[in-house]
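Example A, followed by Example B.
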Amino acid sequence: MSKLTTEDLRLAANTLRCLAMDEVQAANSGHPGVAMGLADVMAALWLGHLKVAPSAPEWADRDRFVLSGGHASSLLYATLHLAGFGVSLDDLKAFRQLGARTPGHPERGVTPGVETTTGPLGQGIAAGVGMALAERLLAARFNAEGRTLVDHRTWVTCGDGDLEEGISHEACSLAGALGLEKLILLYDSNGITIEGATDIALADDTKRRFESYGWRVLACDGHDFADIERALRKAAKPAGKPTLVICRTVIGKGSPNKAGSASCHGAPLGADEVRLAKQGLGFDPDQTFVVPEQVRAHFAARAAKLGRLQRKWARDAKAAFAADPALKAQWDAFQAQEVPEDFASLIPAWGDKPLSTRAASGKILNAIAPAIPWLIGGSADLAPSNMTALNGLGDVSKDDFAGRNLHFGIRELGMGGILNGLANHGGLRPYGGTFFVFCDYARPTLRVAALMGAPVIYVLTHDSFYVGEDGPTHEPVEQLPALRAMPNVCDLRPADATETAVAWEVALRRKDGPTCLMLSRQNLPVLDRAALAPAEGLKKGAYVLWQRDPAREPEAILIASGSEVALALQVAQADARNLRVVSMPSWFLFARQDKAYRDEVLPPTVARRLAIEAASPFGWERYVGAQGRVLGMNGFGASGPAEVLAEHFGFTPGRLAALLNDLLA
């Protein structure tokens, strides 16, 4: 392909503008302004710099592109159509319609070429940081002298709204600390948000802000193709630090009456304005969804060139693998992320000494890490408390990406977005830890992970009022039912060390969504599995742990999760009646069992049920029914020694026995 002229790029950009206008107008819904303002930068990036091959969309060494301002999805879909990613004109015409491949905001797994779900502003930036971090981590593992398997950039477009959201600070600060030199953030600086000019609420000096993070900052006129090209070329050259390119643009560029105003941000331009805009751009105002043949030819030539580049990479990789079969085995393992079949044999013996599930989790992580090299993670500055450190396996830093311990700093929200990017990049399975109560900081990113099925793992410790002296600010109450309310989130609150090991196996085997492990601060007895049901029952969400006489129908069922399972077992075993104890570590997994199994564990004929959980009782009515009871937390926790708080809140054998007697009266 010969070098594109300014006129070639302008025609491509104007085609993108017209397609975006048509998409929004057809749907009578959407955001045309930023799509039109960013079109020149997108045309230059995709036709001259972005390394993606539509013929091999899952190419491991492709550049990653993230549209952080997901409301500009019409621009991304138009670009994917031109680039050859299988997004048809009919798909563009169905923009924002039910079941379309072109939803209102980009969704991973719905539209070919979309790397991550975006929409909540700033999350795309954090995901991009995660993708750029994944590239560095994998390059450290697979590149060697004379061999380059991993060498790509992460390009992220963002707007003023993305940079105003706090997650951008958390993620970009860490990116600077890590020196992620292949991360390029293209800032669409148009000075407009929904309510008007940005200066009504923003006085930041963005250049100085990012320089203070340790970023290189460039600038360009976002409508001058020579200036855009200069900035993109410089940004693509590594400088030991991530790069911000401030692209000065006009929102709604091409609209004669609405360009530069907030009125074109979040509403269709209207039929008359679209006609006028098309006339000004040199397009037929009476036609819609038009793509000039020369534009198609330019994008096709770019796709062909990149297809050749991808095939060369594949040949080089095949030769490297043939020369080193162990390298191929390692590469395949990182890509497939299959849990060893002998996982259970990796787990240490527990003995009978009480152990917190957070401590058990730490021991499990360190036992399995050598056999699962694609597992990597860390904590939001809480590794000594979360027990998330992989001992002796090195820390990740700007000078060394070969380690396996990530330090996210005190940045739960940024951590969550980065975890999403690490997971979506492929080749690694990330986990991140914090106190359970602080998962609220990460909740928006957990929700996006659930939406797009990203298999991230959260280690959430200090899971109840048993935190003790730190008091109610650190004691989760409503977090557990709130987490269970989120679709596609697997909740795992294991009762002891043996259940914790099975919980980790479940988390690692899951590939279609996030998994959260809620772990205790306080020591818990290691349940005697010789006398009780195997911990493997956790895989079904709930199981019968113990019953005095399994041959008969139980008189009542005690249902508990986590630290309260031992309490339920203690009371039931001290009672002469035929009671059943059910360990229910995961509502998510239990709901996915067939009705026959669920009825076997919780027989419909047994209406007397008592749930015990050190959290808000909200939601337990589905399992205890109208005649059941719940021993839970109806208010916040308190500050004091854990054993004193247990007495204060009634989580004692005496209180539980009294509730049981009342239930059976």
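Example B, a separate protein, is given below in the same form.
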Amino acid sequence: MIHPKIPLAQTVVQLCSAKGIDHVVISPGSRNAPLTVGFSNHPDIKAYSIVDERCAAFVALGMAQQLKRPVAVVCTSGSALLNYYPALSEAFYSDIPLVVISADRPSYRIDIGDGQTIRQDNVFDRHILYSTNLKQDANHGANATLSSEKHEAPKFLNAERIETLQQEIQTENEEEINRALNIAIAQKGPVHLNVPFEEPLYDTIEAPTVFPKSTKPLLTDQLQAEDIAIEKFRNQWTSAKRKMVLVGVNQPNQIGSEVLESLANDPSVLVFTETTSNLYHEHFFPSIDKIIAPIELSEDRNTLFEQLQPEILLTFGGMVVSKKVKAFLRKYQPKEHWHIDTKKAYDTYFCLTEHVRQQPNDFLASLLNDQKPSSSDYRTFWDGVKTQRLKGHDDYLKSIPFCDLTAFDTLLKTIPDGHMLQLGNSSTIRYAQLFDVNPSLTNFCNRGTSGIDGSTSTAIGAAMVSDQPVTFVTGDLSFLYDSNALWNEHVPNTFRVIVVNNGGGGIFRILPGDKSADYFETFFETKHGLTAQHLCAMYGWEYQSAKDQKTLRDEMNDFYSVSNTPKLLEVFTPADTNDKFLIDYFKFFTENK
């Protein structure tokens, strides 16, 4: 087996492997050559080459999202590292364990005018769980540095003390690497190892020269579920006649069937879910905006909102997509808001009263154990509203021509059972929220920071490590923004992309603002005439397109058939009417009770 000669590179690779990090995404470079040699030659590590660092980080994010364990990304020095920031911030807010490993020059070579050098230490300071700047090996490259007449040698490179210093440096580096990786594992989030290397960088050896010890996470690194006085919560829960459970981003299969049945069969409970909640029951309330938006337009909105206002709001999961439910709960606040999460609790609705540091399923199982359903007409009333909304939804879609809404209706209905559905941000996730998605699908979207920048790369990373076939639905701007994601030899042939191309940022036609202003189309909507066809040709993907409902249905007939390459379907919708049909969609429920 080939190993890098540099001890620090050996140490990083060996400890990553010892911690179970067996997927590493590497971008090409020179300074990171020792790490590339080590990771790519390790028998227990699968290394992937992704040229674009921003894409590479999101690919790794998608992998870690599915594997539920750390994935590492490795880059060279300089601006390459900064391209990791979008994915790293998404990992930070989505609790995804991403390990950033950046090669660097030794500290004494920073700010002296060398190329590809920036101040890499603590560069992710406010969006990282742990960051460490490792020590340069004292016994590598020392002779060249000491013999240089044009460069003043660093004070620590004293030839008589090199081996003693090396042992001290090795011990400190091992402690820091262990600490960082343990935090990524225990706290489920991003960490950063900044790794300085002196030249020569490419030398290899056949056997390792260091044997670092892997340590277990310290107690302070681990998220411990706290003991709680469950009776206090039970008493409040039982006495309340209106309880709302609101679920944000949630991994599939996290809540047991008994818990779901208990919630669903309690007439005093409304369970509001989103596409990314991955929770289903006939008595739950998906499509939150379909419930709330028509109330906003109603003459008796205050009365209806007061009927919807819960006494207790129980939340778990990550970020919530619906702005409307946020606005509603901030104005019509519950008396109690409990958030269940071992790690953090955001005061999203400005009324947080309890942060329960337990796993949601554990807390709910204890809370609902042997509890008799409360007497209440809370759910009965809103069940009636839901039934009316479902009928109105179908009636409205039958009454309008081809547009984003009807396209999403067709697309979501035709995704095969058992697929993973990855969704782009902005209008894509919001349209998906209006439909009852097939319960056999597992659904994901980068909602930590809600950016459009790496959605395609994330979906591809997920597809690279999952046994499920993946369908990715996105908008045109998001797809074009991240089109380097297709520059990737690891995409499985089962991967399917659907680009809803409305010729620009359609979300901005829905948001407030003067659509007739001269600058609107250029700087907000960013109209364009680009398509994905030539990108597919360049990367060898199969390309299909549709511009009306009939063509779309025809194209869907064989879109999921077996192929020798990934497939992309581009659906062109009318940019000038999409916003009207969406706005009228919510009005329709109010006008047709």
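On Example B: Residues 147-153 have pLDDT under 50 and may be disordered.
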